[in-house]
Structures are given as C-alpha cells and as structure tokens.
Amino acid sequence: MSAHVRQAAGRGRAPRWRAIGASLAAAAMLASLAACSSATTSPSGSGPVGSGAAPVTTPAPTATPAAYADTLRVGWSWEPRWNFRGLDLNDYSTFISFQFLVYSRLYRYDAHYTAIPELADGPCFVPGADARVVRCRIVATTFHDGTPLTADDVAYTYRLFALPDWCEWWVRCTLEEVRVVDDRTVDFVLSSVDPTFLTLGVTNVPILPRHEVEEKYAAFTDAAKGLTADGIQALVDAVGEETGGDPAICSDARLGEVDALLARLGARLWREDYRTTTGELDPCAYLAVAADELRRVASALGREGLEAVMQALVYFSTFQPLSGTGPYRYVSQDANRVHLEAFAGYHGGVAATRYVDFVPAKGDGSDVAAGTVDVSENAGLDTAYRAAAAAHGVQVATMQVPIPNYLTFNVRPGRLFADVNLRRALQLCIDLPRDVDAATGGSAIPVYSPVWPVGSWADDPDLPKPARDVDAAKRLIEASGWQLGSDGIYAKATVRLAAEILVRGDDGERVKLADLVALQAGDCGMDLQSSPFDFGRYIEGLMTYPHNIPGTTVPFDIYIGGLFIRPDPSDGLGILVSTNVSDAKNTGGYNFGGFSDPAYDRLLAAGAATYDQAERARVYRQAQEELAAQMPVIFLFVPTGTDAIRSAVTAVDGPLDLTALYWAWQPERMVVAASGN
Question: Are the C-beta atoms of residues 117 and 106 closer than 8 Å to each other?
Fold first, then answer.
C-alpha cells in the first residue's frame, strides 16, 4: 500500500473493520470473561509464541433459556448493505459481523486486542531451532456442513491469502510456505522472524473449507464459459462511463443486462439495499456496485491457478456463503434479513442465543430505543440521545477508530523544523485536549503516540502529555538563537519563524484543528498559517518526494493528516524508521517527514526480532518515549464512534463491559432478556 493511500484512509466515517480494521473499534465482551476461561495445554516444542493466552472454552447453554429471547438482532446501516450478506474478503472488521460469527480464525482478539487462540489448539510455537518456522495445532472441530476441519484446509486457505495481491494486508508477506505436518498440525515458514504474523496474520484469515472453495470455483468457471476478461471489463468500463457522466445514464436496459450476467454467475444484489430516502431504487448506486463485482469476475477470468481461484472467491463468497467453523451458521436471507443459527458443533460450546439476524437499521439509534433492533453499531448518536439513552433502555459504547490524526514536520536538514526545540515548542504552544474537543465537537480523544488503540497491550500510559505552556515554549525557541521581532514573531537573521500548515480542505475537523494550532502558535511568536488544499488534486505530489507544497516547488514544513493503522504496535511505529524515509530513490516512502534516529531504529528492530509479547511491549514503549523526546510528529487525536445497545442485551455471565476496547469480542456469549424479564 502506498504512503498516500494510507494517508487517504485517514478520513471520513469509521471504516467497517474498526480493528486492525474496517471504523476498522467496538465489539467485545466484558474483560472478566477471559478470567473464566479454562486453560488449554500448549503443544510441546521450544515454547509458546506470543501472549500464551488460552482460548475461551467455557461451555455455553445448549439452548436459549426461557429468560432470554431466542434472537439477537444486529442492525446494519452501512452502505452498501450487501456487505453483511456474506464473506466479504475486503472487510477487516471486528464488529458483530457476519464474518466473525460464521468464520473462525486461528487466533482472535480479546477485549484488549491481545491475540489469543481460537482454532489454534493452544498457542502456536517454534518447534525447533529455526525461529522462522511457526507451528500451529488446530482444534478438533467441523465445518458447518459436518466436514472435519483439517490442516489441509488451513494450509490451502493461507496459500490463497498469501498471494502477492493479498499478503501485506492479511497474512504478512514474510510467509513463504505452508506445510501440512499431519491432519491437525501446520507449519508456517517465514522469510524471517516476524512476530506480527502472530498478532496480525493468524487473526485475520477466515479458515475456509477447501472442498467448498474448489467446488464453487468449478461451478463459477463452468458458468463463465464463453465469457472473457476483456469482454467483462468492457462492460464494466461502459457502466463506469454511464454512471459517471453528466448527466449520469443508468438505464433499465443496463440494469437488466447486469442483473442477467450476475445471475448467470451465481450472484444477486438486493435492490432494496439501494433505495433512496423516498424508497425508490437508486439505479446508479446499484450499477456502480454491480460493476465492482463484475470487475472481480474479469480479474478472475484473466488469471490462472490459485490467483484465479482467489479472485473468483472474492466474488462468489459474498453471494454464496461458504461453510465456516464459527459459532453461527448461515441459514437464509431475503431483502430485509440475513438469518444465522447457532452451530451445534461449535468447538467453544453452543452459542447462548439461538439465532442472530442482521436487519436494516436507521443508524441513529432510534430503532434501538424502540426495541426493534438490539445492537446498532457505529450509530450516529447525538449528544441529546446519549444523555437520555439510559432512560430509554439503551446503553452506549464509545470506541476508538484506528486513524490517528497527526501533525508531521519536515525535519530534513535545512528545513525550519529540523530543530527539535522548535518542534517541542509548538507542542507546548497548543492546548491539545481543548483543541481536539473544539475541532471535533467532542467526537474524538487526544493521543500521544501511533500505537492503537489507547489502552491496548503496547500502549504507554506514562507518555508525557504536556499542558500548554507559552513561556516554556518561548524559552525553547530562544535557546535556539531566535529573537522576538517588533511584529511579535521570532526571527533569526533574515528568516522569520513562519510556515504553512498544509491540511486537506475537504476534512472540516482537520481544518479547524489547523486553524487552532496556527492561532495558538501566534502566542508563542510563530507565524503559522492554515493552508487547506485540494486533496484529490494534489495528494500524489505532496506525498511523493520532495513533497512540495501544492502548486509550488518548495517542500512542505508542516502537514496535518491521518493514518490508518492495525493493532500491532509496529504498524504505526514502523512508519517512522529510517529505512522508510522517502528520497529520490524511494519517492513514496511512508516516512515523508525524513525522520531518522538510530536509537529509535534499534528499538523497532528489537521489537521485530522476538515473539515474546512482553518484551515487545517493553521496547515499543521505549520507542514511544523516544518519539516523544524527538517529536518528529505531534499526534493529535483518534476519532470515536458510538454503538447503541439495548439494556436488555447482556452476557450469560453478567452485564456487558462497554468500557472494554473491544466490547463484543465474544458475541456467542451474548443474550437478550426476553420481554417481561
């Protein structure tokens, strides 16, 4: 993923994952549930890898008790809604989502985003002297169709997700080979020691039944006989030209053509998902999504081997749900519901609630208050709603969105903020908590590092959080030889302490924050000017070396942006290692501010060289402290979202802990009090 793409991700409504990923953070059960779990014996070998936490295996009731309703209704308000209708391989979600109910992974995240075994039978481990080989034993269980889960299914799934187009996001590109040791044991051979494989790779990949993938792929290729990649792509391009025209052309004839082709290839888009506020079909929105699906068909037809299978899987798995090993199995769907049933063979014990239905939600929490929806995730809840929620039988969970917004300096030699004193001075000039509250209307929290989320296993609660101190800021500036001019701005020789704060003009929160930073910097003798720019037009140039101010040949000095990060601390911290510095050869390097610090590099290297999570946490906290001292970036805030949950929703063990980072991480333990209870 290019640097500018990661930058561009940091905007707008929370992504669907709210984990690693995907708006990518809400969905966990009370942290005390982990304490109730029974330990699983670690396989023999050189020792456990990662946290060593055991999977939760407390058996759940075999049937929903009379005190509870038999159905948990999860509201969907995301567009397009069809993402809830099947295995969306572009979804990196930790919601109570279709994916995480139907499909299990080797590991999953607990309430604090520590990876713990799920399908792995105890912690994965290094079986010998070669630390590049990680072995995982899998539990004895079956897919929803009754077929036993085997190591071959795991290996086949990982070979698909380790393909070049997928590996970075899903399994880590260090995965070189997957070996089946026996029916319940698989070895992952990495190109180098990579602890992120145990925090990202084994938590992301939904384990799929090989036999079903191959059967559905065979049916797909049979249905596609006579079709060509070029022919499908030509149709996709035609739809794009028509829907993107002025005026847009979204004809009934084109709708019919597209629907017929989708049906031939085993897919269906529900037109009800593309209704306007007046209840009418939005044909252009429908055709745009249909074209995206057909683009995947073209990609599959244009490839061979596993690459063709994977591209086809992205297409058909959304519409033809495969069997999983998760706590719920897919039963049926119609225009207004996706219906799941508790899987009797679930290895963790039968889910506490018999059914889960995904149903349309209004997105404002009103249907939760009315009792027609039990959980509405990422709902747009205003202040008045939240204040009155308890009185209406609603609980509200606030979650952090993994998009830290930051102010980055160009610290290259010769640039104004190459001087660390000036960087520290600017941090002391701003009142971060008040500025964040004012700029975001209270919908974000201040942060002081790129480790996400606040409160996770590598977060450093002891990082300095300096209060505004104008006098201390001025002392730092003067210590670097700057003198206050008659205009109230510091200068050194002929250079004034002045710079533009670049910020994308279409992000109102960041623009407001840039304005506040510029205003407060003036009190410290800095002449900073907020400079919004056309993001779509200039982002390529700004994010490519030498990172010039849009419309000029002058490199930037300050930029406010956002960055999408995943739960492993190395993901955010790793951006700033010196090997990622952009230059004439590495024009798109993530580290576009040019920060280079050997001490920081050594700490990141140490964290990447061990599977010991406690040791990784220690060195990553040191790395955060080094960043705080060198200040190449002032971290600003992460957005927050809100989930609305009926007060009737609880866990079989007691009340939900909605303060947990990932409050619904065990949806199979959730229950809804029956009416009258």
Answer: yes
Of 300, 319, 338, the residue that ends a domain is: 319
Q: List the beta strands (DSSP E) in 440-592.
A: 444-446, 483-484, 490-492, 495-496, 498-504, 527-533, 558-562
- Dmax (CA) of the chain: 81
Three-state DSSP class for residue 500 = strand
Model pLDDT for residues 219-273, shown as the tens digit of each residue: 999 999 999 999 999 999 999 999 999 999 999 999 999 999 999 999 988 888 8
Q: Is the pLDDT of residue 40 over 90?
A: no
Is residue 150 predicted with pLDDT exceeding 90?
A: yes
311 with 419, same domain: the answer is: no
Are 308 and 447 found together in one domain? no
pLDDT in tens, 383-428: 899 999 999 999 999 988 889 999 999 999 999 999 999 999 999 9
* Percent share of the chain, pLDDT over 90: 75
Model confidence at 63, pLDDT cuts 50, 70, 90, reads low
Pair 184, 121: CB distance under 8 Å = yes
Q: How many domains does the chain have?
A: 2
User: Among candidates 534, 609, 592, which has minimal Cα distance to 411?
Assistant: 592
Is residue 489 pLDDT above 90, yes or no? Answer: yes
Exposed (0-12), middle (13-18) or buried (19+): which is 70, by Cβ within 10 Å?
middle
Euclidean distance between CA atoms 159 and 175, whole angstroms: 9
Which of 253, 286, 319 lies at the terminal end of a domain, its last residue? 319
Q: In angstroms, rounded to a whole number, what is the distance separating the alpha carbons of residues 84 and 88?
A: 8
Give a yes or no: residue 127 inside a domain: no
Whether residue 663 contacts residue 28, with contact meaning beta carbons closer than 8 Å, is answered with yes
**Dihedral angle at the C-alpha atoms of 239, 240, 242, 246, nearest 10 degrees?**
170
Helix (H, G, I), strand (E, B) or coil at 242: helix
Q: Identify whether residues 624 and 479 lie together within a single domain.
A: yes
Pairing type for strands 133-137 and 483-484 reads unpaired
Same domain, yes or no: 437 and 579:
yes
For 532-535, which contacts have Cβ atoms below 8 Å and span 24 or more sequence positions? Answer: 532/503, 532/504, 532/505, 533/502, 533/503, 533/504, 533/505, 534/505, 535/8, 535/504, 535/505, 535/506, 535/507
Asked whether residue 602 is domain-assigned, the answer is yes
How much is the pLDDT for 275?
83
Q: How far is CA 331 from CA 85, 268, 271, 341, 355, in A?
A: 11, 16, 21, 7, 10
In this prediction, residue 520 has a pLDDT band, given cuts at 50, 70 and 90, of very high
CATH code, domain with 533: 3.10.105.10
Helix (H, G, I), strand (E, B) or coil at 278: coil
- In this structure, the answer to whether residues 429 and 307 fall within a common structural domain is no
Residue environment code for 486-500, b if the CB has 16+ CB neighbours within 10 A, otherwise e: eeebbbeeeebbebb
Give the per-residue pLDDT at 30.
22
User: At 291, which amino acid appears?
Assistant: A
- Per-residue pLDDT at 82 exceeds 80: no
Q: Which residue segment(s) compose the domain that 417 sits in?
A: 405-640
Amino acid occupying residue 581 = V
Are 474 and 425 a contacting pair, CB within 8 Å?
yes
Does residue 409 share a domain with residue 315?
A: no
Same domain, 479 and 628: yes
Q: Could you tell me if residue 415 is inside a domain?
A: yes
User: What pTM, to 2 d.p., does this model score?
Assistant: 0.87
DSSP string, 504-535: ETT-HHHHHHHHHHHHHHHTTT-EEEEEEE-H
Instruction: Answer yes or no: is 169 within a domain.
Output: no
Q: What is the pLDDT of residue 268?
A: 87
